[in-house]
Amino acid sequence: MGKQASGNQASNQNVELLRRFYESFNQGDLDSVLELCTEDVEVYKDPEVVEMVSAFTPRGQERVAQYLRGWLDSWSDYVARPEGFLQSGEDVAALTQLRARGKNSQFEIEGDMADVFTVRDGRIARFRLYVQRHDALDSLGLTA
Asked: What secondary structure, in 3-state letters, does 101-123 show?
């Protein structure tokens, strides 16, 4: 039986870390994003995430920066607003409201999404991007 999502509020330290992540990311400030990450940070992409940037799993700050720059460059508008944070061990799910529009296209996304971050020693060691919020919660053994 999964843990109830409502009973696992993230620590204040992790909430602040991830709020800073989203604030910097939404402004396209990747230098500030990387300051919040470990040297060997990696990005895991849910198989449902549209692969517009790369086929490899980005690992290390340089590759993660390239991946995130490519991702942001593919959108004319991209804003992920965190609405809540749930924690399970060293993993934190950020429940977000996403609004995005593809560059030079009519493709738009608006909806509830989630990302899962692994936090080690106060820094982001890994983040996983999910299309479906319930998949992110399931990955942590949480239920909505």
From this structure: EECCCCCEEEEEEEEEEEEECCE
